[in-house]
Recover the amino acids of this structure.
């Protein structure tokens, strides 16, 4: 297993807007999890997001909205958790709130 494949089996912490854009454009299917450390529902969703990173071909990105406030504002993130799905660099879906793992995998399968 190459190093880059190993890294993709767990969520990638986004550092800034350029990093996010680069990762979205480099991978076929991307799930972006906008979260905050103080957010209870985000903590509930975290194990699900980690399982999706490990079990699917989607690349999972984590965006801390407190750390990257401007990025979250630019993307119109008004509540957390917000999950955005990208296919081939284009936003395909946005879900807000805690989601069922099976529903998230369905979206990824539809985009793959």
């Amino acid at each position: 297993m190459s190093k880059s494949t190993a890294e993709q089996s767990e969520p990638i912490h986004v550092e800034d807007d350029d990093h996010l854009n680069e990762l979205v454009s480099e991978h076929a299917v991307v799930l972006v999890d906008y979260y905050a450390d103080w957010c209870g529902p985000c903590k509930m969703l975290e194990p699900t997001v980690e399982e999706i990173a490990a079990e699917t071909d989607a690349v999972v990105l984590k965006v801390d909205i407190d750390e990257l406030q401007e990025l979250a504002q630019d993307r119109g993130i008004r509540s957390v958790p917000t999950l955005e799905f990208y296919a081939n660099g284009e936003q395909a879906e946005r879900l807000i709130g805690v989601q069922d793992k099976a529903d998230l995998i369905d979206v990824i399968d539809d985009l793959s």
